[in-house]
Amino acid sequence: MPNIAQISAPLARFALRRPVTVCMIFLSFLLLGLISSRLLPLEKFPGIEIPQIAVVVPYPGATPAEVERLITRPLEEALATIGGLNEIRSDSSDNQAQIVLDFNWNDSISARGIEVREAIDSVRHTLPSDVERVFVYQFNTDDMAVMQLRISSDRDLSMAYDLINRNLKQPLERVPGVSRVQLYGVDQPEIMIRLDPVAMAASQLSASDVTHILNQANFTLSAGYVESTTERIQVKPVGEFRSLDDIRRLPVTRHLTLADIATIGYELPKPRAGRHFNQTYAIGIDIFKDSSANLVDVARLASAVIAQADGSPEFAGIYLMTMDNTAESVTTSLNDLLSAGLIGAVLSIIVLYLFIRDWRATLIIVVSVPIAIFLTLGVMYLLGYSLNILSMMGLMLAVGMLIDNAVVVSESIKHEQQEAIERGETPDSRTIELGTSRVSLAIIAGTLTTAIVFLPNIFGEKQEITIFLEHVAVAICISLLTSLLIAQTLIPLLMSKLTAKANPQGSQPGRIKRAYLRSLRWSHRHPRWTTLIMLVIVASTALPFSQVSGDQTETAFNDRLFLNYFVTGQYTLEQVERDVTAMENYLYANKDTFELEHVYSYYTPGYAISILMLKEDRSLSVTEIQRRIRADMPPLARSRPVFGFRGGNSGGVQLTLQGRSTAELEQVAEQLIPMLERIDGLADVQTASRQALDEMRVTIDRTQAERFGLSSQAVAEQISVALRGRNLRSFRHHPEGDMRIQLTFPDSVQQNYREFETMIIGQHNGQWVTLNQVATIERIPQLGTIRRVDRQTAVRITANLEELSMSDARTQLSALLNAIELPAGVQWSLDGGFRTQQQQNQLMLVNMLLAIALVYMVMAALFESLLLPSAVIGSLLMAICGAFWGLMFTGTNLDIMALIGLLILMGIVVNNGIVLVDAVNQQRDAGMELEQALLEASSRRVRPILMTVATTVLGMLPLALGSNQIGGDGPPYAPMAITIISGLIVSTVTSLYFVPHAYSRLLAWRAYWAGVWQHARYPLQRKAL
Questions:
Q1: 236-260: per-residue pLDDT in tens?
Q2: Could you tell me if 983 and 902 are in contact, meaning their C-beta atoms sit under 8 angstroms apart?
Q3: Which residue(s) pair with 760 in the sheet?
Q4: Would you call 233 helix, strand, or coil by DSSP?
Q5: Residue 648 has pLDDT above 50, yes or no
């Protein structure tokens, strides 16, 4: 055993000999913390790269089969060659292809993004020529909008683009810290050129001819330089349109202008999506901030701009509603944490005083908390971390533990001072140094074991939970290390300024100590009974372990529900809007019953979602509101409404079927859905894909087309322009900026089947040639969406859980699917919530085992013993037992927050055992017998142990009893706090007996086996003796 006095005596000695220097050092720490608290970026979540890249390729007017064949498959083959790819998923639908690539959390997504773009470029030439752009999206938490504004009015807002852009969007873009402002739901007018098929046929012009003429007439080109002996001048030929009349007067033949064969004017683009807010059409504005900007400052300045616009005469009759304000949720969450922390701190101070009965000594211990917090903020700023709800959670968890080291050191100093007084000596600086050094090893080991449990999460395998835990861990580790520094320096210095007195207290703490020593003597003298009691306590964990659910705790205080509409066919935007309107009418007719505040809806021809904003003072839980809404939900003609999570169903369960063809998998899914619906607790069972759509297939007869003097390419081009339109070079001389130019045909061609098939496409021998004369037009069914997972066709069945645990759902689904004989080549897997929960639980379990191993190694190194740490590690079993009993009594699930609580608990509970083992070692080194050493050490340490546990428990109590959630709408803190409190209480009570008992038993076993070993090595010598 090393000389303990040498470990921290230099720090305490320096503090006692240079008090002014130490005070100035800590004053500078305070100043650093105060400055850093203003400079630290304030945000909801830290900037984290999500290991996912999405590739989106718009291809309007194409069928899903065409999109899959022409776009999805070539891109998948190229992207599949990228290393480190976990999964590749694709959706081929009408109008676009979407491919999602999942990578490891350890990967650099910026570097992967470059690889993705290079892979796309390698096959870009194989994609259709009319694919204009390929979008590659990377995801970062900094990319989330900080504010979402919705604009509605009883008046028509379709022509309000200039009003909103000039009075709201542009002023918001000028707010310091705002990176961009996105306006949607109202568009800038564009120049629409609508070709007359009759006039075009009469003039012998095709759509491709007109496209070529327009592009040739609207250009800007850098042609080089003219150089002379005195100057060098750049030459730039300009042929841009400068007015609408320039476009109308554009010659298309020798005798005709564009106005002779087309109508040209300003039109609003055809909407591809719509929004409702409180049953009226709505416009949306999303505000994004710079990554380095302060969230609260940006939101405050943006809110001022919004308020100014709202009060202007131009916005009379227009309603502006801030639907999402991240700053408000962050501020609310931080205030909740702060108030919980203050309540816990006040309770801890009261408990400390009840133990110490000295306000000056109590304040000396308490003063270590703000100093440690300010120092932590300074270090976080220097390390580049931000102040967010995760780091604040770490600080909140650390508050109850920050005074532990100060309590242990101050109690040890007081004990040494008391002994000096009893010996008739005057306590001096050497007494304080001795008191500090006696517990130095214990507080170093305790601090390291608490901090080291987070190392697997910081440096181990990266998953979403460990990425976020890193920011919690950094705040806890820094604050604990600073509290260790304070306990070694500032606490001895401040304690030296107090006049040592004989112990004035002897009532309540004395009685507790005497009762504890009597029971400890009985425990030591009845080892078998003690062992039996401990085994019974550990075995009792089986009951709560079987009763506690492993599902995620329902966030019953969430203020929103997400109602997804899965469109079952091929419909127009107006038809889908009718379904949304019918649902909104039902919701508003029962607004009070469902406790709704607002309803916001977003819809497209293929999908829709309604966000139900609930009242803050509601009395119903989320589950009950969902049940009431489902009870009388009206049947919709074109869609299936189900509850989900933010436009998806990742919060529920997913059954993925993989096979050879989508049609076969859809048939299997339709057969499975009735079976799944019979499982009690499964709700909203459905396939995630759209039903079969109709495709109008135009087969061009080349022979017939050539007889009329037409090529197949010209006919196809004419159809494409008529239905899809053609984007031309922009008009750059409009006062409001660049304006799109669109070439198309009259709307009647797109809206009427008869108009389309009789569309005039040419003239031959004075007769009009129609489309149906050169082509066969037929309607055939097609797939709604073609989904692929890892380049295999897939169909997903989704469902929500109602009063059914995730584990029970997995068991019942697996039993059902195993009992069914699926067609050859069809495979199934459980994804969604199953996969997320399994990955999180497995990772947390591995990290917990690693944490236990690291804690053991730290204690073995500090105690210089492989045996003694086992006495402390055993207290972890008691903590786990207490945690499960606490979860069962409170009806709390073992969710991810409870697992985090278990992880933190592992680092905390060993501290008591370390303090006891270290004290016993010191007494034995001083020559005491084992039983006396155990009693003396336990007598000395029981008070500081009870004090530190009481302050930690009371610091967590507001979180355990409150309704605070991460970010205001995330997982609740209560499961984590309940786990820590219950585990710490049970572990403390049992460890006060278990650790001394285990210590004595381990030494007895070591002596026994040493004798056996000695006898085995020297049998003859022992026999002679």
A1: 767 778 888 888 888 888 888 988 8
A2: yes
A3: 770
A4: strand
A5: no
Closest CA to 875 of 845, 916, 921, 922: 916
Mind giving me the DSSP string for 1012-1024? HHHHHH-HHHHHH
Closest CA to 188 of 271, 131, 244, 262: 271
Q: What is the pTM of this model?
A: 0.74
Helices within 678-769 (DSSP H only): 702-707, 712-723, 747-751, 753-757
177: left (phi over 0), alpha (psi -120 to 50) or beta: left
Give the separation between CA 946 and CA 952, rounded to whole angstroms.
10
Write down the pLDDT at residue 508.
45
The residue type found at 308 is Q
| Superfamily name and number for 557-650 | Multidrug efflux transporter AcrB pore domain (3.30.70.1430)
Q: Are the beta carbons of 288 and 182 closer than 8 angstroms?
A: yes
Question: What is the per-residue pLDDT across 549-601, written as a single tens digit (0 to 9) for each?
Answer: 766 555 444 678 888 888 877 788 899 999 999 999 999 999 989 989 889 99
CA–CA separation, 133 and 97 (whole Å): 12
118-174: per-residue pLDDT in tens? 999 988 888 887 787 889 988 877 778 888 898 888 888 888 888 888 889 999 999
Give yes or no for a contact between 918 and 446, defined as CB atoms under 8 angstroms apart.
no
The DSSP bridge pattern shows strands 726-734 and 760-764 to be unpaired
Q: With beta carbons less than 8 A apart as the criterion, state whether 297 and 164 touch.
A: no
Whole-angstrom Cα distance, residue 247 to residue 260? 12
Q: What is the CATH number assigned to the segment(s) 517-539+835-998?
A: 1.20.1640.10
- List phi, psi (to 5°) of 602: -130, 135
pLDDT at position 302 = 92
CA angle 1019, 1023, 1025 (to 5 degrees): 120
Whole-angstrom distance, CA of residue 696 vs CA of residue 782: 10
Q: For residues 422 and 985, what is the distance between their CA atoms, to the nearest angstrom? A: 34
Q: Which two tokens stand for residue 857?
A: 């190694």
Helix, strand or coil, per DSSP, at residue 404: helix
* Two tokens, residue 527: 């080892």
Enumerate the domain spans of the chain: 517-539+835-998, 557-650
How far is residue 483 from each of residues 26, 47, 319, 403, 688, measured CA to CA in Å?
Answer: 12, 28, 52, 7, 53
3-state SS of 486-506? Answer: HHHCHHHHHHCCCCCCCCCCC
Number of other residues whose CB lies within 10 A of the CB of residue 543: 12
The rounded distance, in Å, linking the Cα atoms of 902 and 896 is 10
